[in-house]
Amino acid sequence: MKRFIGFVKKEFYHIFRDKRSMFILFGMPIAQIMLFGFAITNEINNVNIAILDQSKDSETQKIINKINASQYFNIEQKISSESQIESVFKKGKVKAVLVFENQFIKNLQTKKQAKVQVITDATDPNIANAITNYVNAILQNYTQEFKRDSPSSYQIQTQTQLYYNPELKSVFNFVPGVMTIILMLVSAMMTSISITREKELGTMEVLLVSPLRPFQVIIGKVFPYVFLSIINATIIVLLGFFVFKMPVEGSLFLLSFESILFIISALSLGILISTISNSQQTAMMISLMGLMLPVIILSGFIFPISSMPMPMQIISNIIPAKWFIIIIKAIMLKGASITIIWKETLILIGMTVFFIVLSIKKYKIRLE
């Protein structure tokens, strides 16, 4: 019995001395519960909207102030004409535009009803529905307050218009998200496993002392995954177009360029993971826990980033998938050109360069 107790103590000592095991045992669960607890929500908060006030009277200003004071909306800008609505949506910041009709207060007092048009960016159907419901609730609350000052019955009618996805097809949201997840996992996880396999077997050092230069070896290892990821991306776009009738409004060349850029970014991230992993098991754990969950939760694929706490919103900015989803939706659904998505493209390029430079530096330290 003493031998058994001594053996168990030894195992405890081994676990406690291994910082990676301790991180997996205690760090991962804490990180995941915090991530899930704060990020996963079906509610919307701080959604950016624009206002087109054609009436400009005291009552429309009261409604605008009421909307802005709610936790659900943030008035990003005020526009002066309907011709600006599409350009505002294409920039990607604004999710809805509220249009107040001419002579709003006059119509409310004389005709006993007035109209507010709720125009939403329906590339994410769930957010579009939630925005409409919240606006209706705020307007209904305002109408009840307005009735207290007058015995007459008043009504504010809302007219809904959906941009880019008028039928509210959820597949228009899921095809870009699934494409992002597949490209990230195939590119990053498979690359990191492939390279750590060579390190486990001791053949990577053999390759690096061959006539090939280190960067040629690395490029040779990851090139097949570039090719395979491009095939995957092509299959997903074709299935989305022919099977699910998802439009591709923008340039196919631009879509291809952005997809290849994201693939290279994911590959460079996979190489970076391989530099800090000594085994395939460690690489797999880091890839699954460190990439898959953030890609699903913090990329805006399923849960709106604007509804997350500010620390989560800041963290989401370092997730390459977030920027790729913005880019691919803008190209496929909105027909955006590079003049619209240049900022997101530059961010992806910067991340790719950063990952590649850091990976090369790590490889020089460890393998040369």
Automatic annotation (TrEMBL):
UniProt-recorded Gene Ontology molecular function terms: ABC-type transporter activity
Q: Where's the ABC transmembrane type-2 domain? A: 128-366
Quote the cellular component terms of the Gene Ontology held in the record: ATP-binding cassette (ABC) transporter complex
Q: Which residues cross the membrane?
A: 21-40, 174-195, 222-244, 250-273, 285-306, 340-360
The cross-references to InterPro entries, in alphabetical order and at most eight, read: ABC-2_transporter_component, ABC2_TM, ABC2_TM_bact-type, ABC_2_transport
Q: Classify the main location.
A: membrane
The topology of this chain with respect to the membrane is: Multi-pass membrane protein
| Record keywords, A-Z | Cell membrane, Membrane, Transmembrane, Transmembrane helix, Transport
The subcellular localization recorded is: Cell membrane
Q: Which residues form the signal peptide?
A: none
Q: Which Pfam families match?
A: ABC2_membrane_3
Q: What family name appears in the similarity comment?
A: Belongs to the ABC-2 integral membrane protein family.
The name under which this protein is listed is Transport permease protein
Q: Which organism is it from?
A: Flavobacterium urumqiense
Q: What is the lineage of its organism?
A: Bacteria, Pseudomonadati, Bacteroidota, Flavobacteriia, Flavobacteriales
